[in-house]
Write a structure and sequence with these properties.
Layout (H helix, E strand, L loop, with lengths): L2 H14 L15 H15 L8 E2 H5 L11 H11 L6 E2 L1 H51 L4 H19 L9 H30 L1
Antiparallel strand pairs: 1-2
Helix pairs in contact: 2-5, 6-7
Length: 206
């Protein structure tokens, strides 16, 4: 995928998140109600140059005319598929509004899909960041001469003891005094292991 395609996609997504996804000339279309009102106003403006009650499809077919006067057949086919005019070439206001509303619903679906994809990408990014920082922490502990497993077990014991002492979800099964005793035991055990490791480092240096 080229850089220009990515930039074009970003501009398209930015247009979806505005209140004028069909351009400022069309009018506000941030909600479905605004889209319907703007569609009716556009239909009435297109009928200003016509004495008929229904819009002739030839008015919309002018969109498919190129600057050199030739017709863009693919664009005309897309317009016919979108608006579905009658056999006599007329298009009522109800059909015009329904066609625009169908496009608006597709835009809303596309915008929701893009938002969901962004949330999933953000969740994966957070997971990879946690894994990356955990690996970096293990490497740092290894360089310092500490056993990452022992440090992890010691810190986990302290965190669990603090959690049980601060939040008691078992309604008396784990009492506060037992939790504090458990916390003190792990703190002393952690301090003893740290002294042993420091002693080993001192003997190695000497």
């Amino acid at each position: 995928m080229s850089v220009s395609a990515l930039l074009q996609f970003r501009r398209a997504v930015a247009c979806l998140r505005t209140d004028f996804p069909f351009s400022a000339t069309f009018g506000p279309a941030g909600t479905r109600e605004d889209t319907i009102i703007s569609s009716q106003e556009v239909y009435e403006k297109l009928l200003l140059d016509s004495s008929e009650d229904c819009l002739n499809f030839q008015v919309l077919a002018r969109i498919g005319v190129r600057s050199d006067g030739s017709l863009d057949q693919q664009k005309l086919v897309d317009l016919i598929k979108l608006f579905r005019p009658d056999r006599d070439g007329t298009l009522s206001m109800i059909d015009f509004v329904k066609s625009v509303d169908a496009v608006y619903r597709e835009l809303r679906l596309l915008r929701a899909s893009v938002n969901n994809s962004s949330k999933i990408d953000s969740a994966f990014e957070n997971i990879f960041n946690i894994v990356f920082y955990f690996i970096i922490l293990v490497i740092i502990l290894g360089v310092m001469g500490l056993n990452p497993l022992e440090m992890f077990l010691a810190v986990t014991g302290v965190v669990l003891a603090f959690a049980f002492s601060k939040f008691d979800p078992t309604s008396g099964l784990f009492k506060r005094d037992r939790s504090l005793t458990f916390l003190c035991c792990h703190l002393s055990d952690w301090a003893g292991k740290f002294k042993v490791l420091r002693g080993k480092e001192g003997r190695t240096i000497s």
